[in-house]
């Protein structure tokens, strides 16, 4: 009897130990950006074979898009060679340090806060800062939680980043009480943008642009597990979520932009690539439908995940400009 109890106890301890190792390893791979960087968030969508008669037309359109995108990137490079970003730091009331790249474009009352995506960095958003600079906005590009020069080891997929975003809003408004602010985020940065709009914000925040944001971390991780990994991972996500909370980070269901936008009063433009195979296209319609604020959306047919602004820059920035112009005098 004692041997049986010992055997059962030993098996339970071994199982618990294995689960602990699994949770720790998976948590590191998912939320420690220094390890997750090799995984990235860009997955190429499946390409359907077209009938022969359509191929030439499609190819010509694609070549035209590539020329337009290349010309845009060249302009970004030329602009950046003449406009260097400086490092900006703040320490909030809780003693937490924040970092951002800053482009001073000489307009003290017009600001854009631009949030990057998972495994990216402020420098990965310079092609967003360039059009905003042309519109006369000073640009703050924060290091997201657990990324770049942020002091945290683990990212929070937008959950804690929203408070970092509010810190930067407060920073601007303290210096410039009449400042007009636009929030613009891509992917995880879009989730952050939506989460911020669910907070009580000053009237200085005039509008927001959410580009390919997910509904919730749990739904996003479930989608990725089923489509990019293995469905066997799905039941374990609840365990990983609990483990994340025990580590003092966040619960996957609690990080839910789709719930945050229900409380939003910030006019929001939603954008999504129709070929997105990482944050599925349907999620845009879900967050758009849930949003209680004034809202609009547009899609980019040829774009995969986080490609809308580079695949169709003219279409993208024309829509963004027209939306912002409704809320800020440009």
Can you summarize this structure?
The chain is of the alpha/beta class. The chain has helices at 2-31, 33-36, 52-82, 126-134, 161-175, 188-197, 217-228, 234-246, 257-260, 282-290, 308-311, 313-325, and strands spanning 86-91, 97-103, 110-115, 138-142, 180-186, 205-211, 268-273, 295-300. Helix 5 (161-175) crosses helix 6.
How would you sum up the global shape? globular
Beginning-to-end CA distance, first to last residue: 81 Å
> Percentage of helical residues?
40-55%
Strand order of the largest sheet: 1-2-4-3-5-6-7-8
Please count the helical segments. Answer: 12
**Radius of gyration over all CA atoms, rounded:** 22 Å
Q: What is the number of E strands? A: 8
Helix and strand content put the structural class at alpha/beta
Q: Which spans have pLDDT < 50 for at least 5 consecutive residues?
A: 5-13, 38-48
Largest sheet: 8 strands, mixed
Q: What's the pLDDT, averaged over the residues?
A: 87
């Amino acid at each position: 009897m004692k041997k049986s109890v010992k055997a059962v106890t030993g098996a339970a301890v071994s199982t618990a130990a294995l689960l602990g190792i699994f949770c720790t390893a998976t948590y590191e791979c998912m939320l420690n950006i220094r390890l997750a960087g090799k995984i990235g968030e860009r997955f190429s969508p499946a390409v359907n074979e077209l009938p022969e008669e359509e191929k030439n037309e499609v190819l010509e359109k694609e070549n035209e898009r590539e020329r337009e995108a290349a010309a845009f990137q060249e302009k970004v490079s030329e602009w950046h060679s003449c406009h260097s970003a400086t490092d900006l730091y703040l320490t909030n009331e809780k003693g937490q340090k924040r970092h951002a790249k800053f482009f001073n474009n000489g307009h003290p009352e017009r600001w854009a806060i631009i949030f990057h995506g998972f495994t990216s960095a402020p420098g990965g958003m310079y092609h967003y800062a360039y059009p905003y600079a042309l519109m006369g906005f000073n640009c703050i590009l924060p290091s997201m939680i657990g990324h770049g020069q942020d002091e945290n080891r683990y990212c929070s997929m937008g959950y804690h980043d929203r408070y970092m975003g509010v810190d930067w809003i407060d920073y601007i408004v303290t210096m410039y009480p009449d400042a007009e602010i636009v929030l613009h985020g891509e992917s995880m940065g879009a989730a952050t943008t939506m989460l911020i709009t669910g907070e009580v914000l000053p009237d200085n925040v005039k509008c927001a642009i959410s580009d390919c944001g997910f509904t919730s971390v749990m739904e996003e991780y479930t989608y990725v597990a089923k489509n990019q990994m293995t469905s066997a991972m799905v039941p374990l996500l609840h365990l990983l979520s609990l483990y994340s909370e025990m580590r003092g980070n966040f619960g996957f269901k609690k990080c839910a932009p789709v719930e945050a936008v229900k409380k939003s009063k910030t006019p929001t433009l939603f954008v999504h690539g129709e070929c997105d195979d990482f944050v599925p296209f349907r999620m845009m319609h879900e967050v758009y439908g849930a949003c209680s604020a004034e809202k609009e959306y547009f899609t980019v047919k040829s774009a995969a995940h986080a490609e809308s602004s580079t695949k169709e820059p003219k279409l993208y920035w024309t829509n963004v400009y027209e939306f912002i112009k409704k809320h800020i005098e440009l």
